[in-house]
Amino acid sequence: MSSIFQLLGAAALVVVVLTHVFEALRVFPRMGWGSQTSVGHYLDLLCAILGVTLFSLGYLIHAVDACVEKKKSETG
What we know:
By secondary structure, this protein is mainly α. It has helices at about 1-25, 40-75.
């Protein structure tokens, strides 16, 4: 489960990078890249929040699972 969250978070962060590249290259001009009220701006913001949240959650789940496994191996 943690790997899936980390993968989805990393994919969302790739979308953030791609939106910046598309903005710089002026790809899909109808999206209004650069404007604070454009679809591209909200896509970038949403993916950045989602990417950081999912990647962090995946890492946290992995760390907790590893800690639990370590305690199990020490006691049993």
